[in-house]
Design a protein that fits this description.
The chain is of the alpha/beta class. The protein folds into two domains: 12-91 and 122-211 and 221-236, 3-Layer(aba) Sandwich (Rossmann fold), CATH 3.40.50; 237-342, Orthogonal Bundle (Helicase, Ruva Protein, domain 3), CATH 1.10.8.80. 45% of the residues lie in helices and 15% in strands. The chain contains 15 helices and eleven strands. It has helices at 7-10, 15-35, 43-54, 69-79, 95-99, 136-139, 141-148, 183-186, 200-210, 224-235, 241-252, 275-291, 299-310, 318-322, 327-341, and strands at 59-62, 84-88, 100-106, 112-118, 125-129, 150-153, 156-159, 165-170, 191-194, 269-271, 315-316. The strands form four sheets. A five-stranded parallel beta sheet has the order 2-5-8-1-9. Strands 3-4 form a two-stranded antiparallel ribbon. Strand 6 and strand 7 (156-159) form a beta hairpin. Helix 3 packs across helix 12 (275-291). The radius of gyration is 22 Å and the shape is globular. The two termini are 29 Å apart.
């Protein structure tokens, strides 16, 4: 008997889910086109941001100043009718400047009482600009929000509205007066997204597009509730057993103490990726599959998300730094070798 060509039969998806995946693929194409009216190039960056958002993850953007990191995030929020908030991290920023605090106010009956004033973290998309310029105490104020989607202020717990998406930026050229993010906080970010300089043709087009009177207003494509529905859809994308096994195998190879780590990697890596990396590999692959209209996760989906998932979770040794090797180069080699083994 010939296999069914109906994706709902082949993947155990409902007919409604199949239709929703088709709609999400079309929506993603419209999103890229709409952002392309303002953001020139950076197609890979836009895809990775979309993957993070629909997978309920957070992203860390790395790039030198002037690559439109802030503009990209604000325009992404504009296309999705979401509440956007920007926090400029500075050395004197305090945790209460992020979460909010109780302020003594005059009540209607004339008595004075404390009233909680929400901070900028109470938004759908939060841009933590230059997060490494704030001290660790302030950086830690974001941890609870990112991991549990809530904040605790003076013993009171406040839930954050869904969808909730944190985008943090770092400028790698700034070393003086910065506080590197600890590994525990880096691990909370699903992707490390690196932005590079545009090509010459793109740079000319940037100058043509952005030096006019005003930037175009973008069309609202999605509401918050629709994004949450698509996030649930992504979780339902089927994953074959061999994909789970491949993701776990790849992550376990990053750990120099493990038996499966290649011999060349052990002197170069002091600490490898943890179980959260396996989760993010699968979730990222699910989101990418849905955005491209696939009804099942494929191996190529895992390969496409492996570098942004692993590159900030592999901690290099002094020997690697002496050889001029960074985590990105090590992860690329590991991915290439793991692909050849199949």
């Amino acid at each position: 008997m010939a296999p069914s060509t109906n994706p709902s039969v082949a993947t155990n998806l409902s007919d409604n889910d199949v239709q929703a995946i088709d709609q999400l693929r079309e929506l993603y194409a419209r999103l890229r086109k709409e952002l392309g009216r303002v953001i020139i190039g950076q197609n890979d960056v836009i895809e990775r941001l979309a993957i993070c958002m629909f997978a309920r993850g957070h992203a860390l953007l790395m790039g030198v100043p002037g690559l439109a990191k802030t503009l990209l995030v604000s325009k992404l929020a504009e296309t999705m009718s979401l509440h956007f908030s920007r926090i400029q991290f500075t050395p004197d920023l305090m945790p209460m400047d992020i979460t909010g605090t109780d302020i003594l106010q005059d009540g209607a009956d004339g008595r004075r009482e404390f009233q909680f004033i929400k901070g900028p973290v109470f938004a759908n998309i939060v841009l933590a600009d230059e997060i490494n310029r704030a001290p660790p105490k302030t950086q830690a104020a974001m941890l609870e929000a990112m991991q549990e989607q809530k904040v605790t202020v003076v013993g009171k717990m406040f839930r954050l509205e869904s969808p909730f998406f944190v985008l943090a930026t770092q400028n790698p050229v700034e070393q003086e007066g910065t506080y590197p993010l600890p590994e525990a906080q880096l691990d909370r970010f699903m992707f490390l997204i690196e932005l590079d300089y545009p090509s010459e043709a793109e740079e000319i087009l940037i100058a043509r597009t952005t030096t006019g009177d005003a930037l175009p207003e973008l069309t609202h494509l999605l509401s918050g509730n629709e994004i949450v529905e698509h996030q649930h859809l992504v979780r339902r994308i089927p994953v074959p057993d061999h994909i789970y096994e491949y993701a776990a195998k790849l992550v376990r190879k990053t750990r120099p103490q493990g038996a499966t780590a290649p011999a060349w990697l052990k002197p170069l890596v002091s600490w490898g990726a943890g179980p959260r990396a396996v989760q993010f590999l699968i979730l990222g692959a699910k989101a990418r599959a849905a955005l491209h209209g696939s009804y099942m996760v494929r191996l190529e989906d895992v390969h496409e998300v492996a570098l942004p998932v692993l590159s900030h979770r592999v901690i290099t040794t002094f020997a690697a730094q002496a050889e001029g090797l960074d985590a990105k180069q090590i992860v690329k080699r590991l991915i290439s070798e793991t692909m050849e083994e199949r």
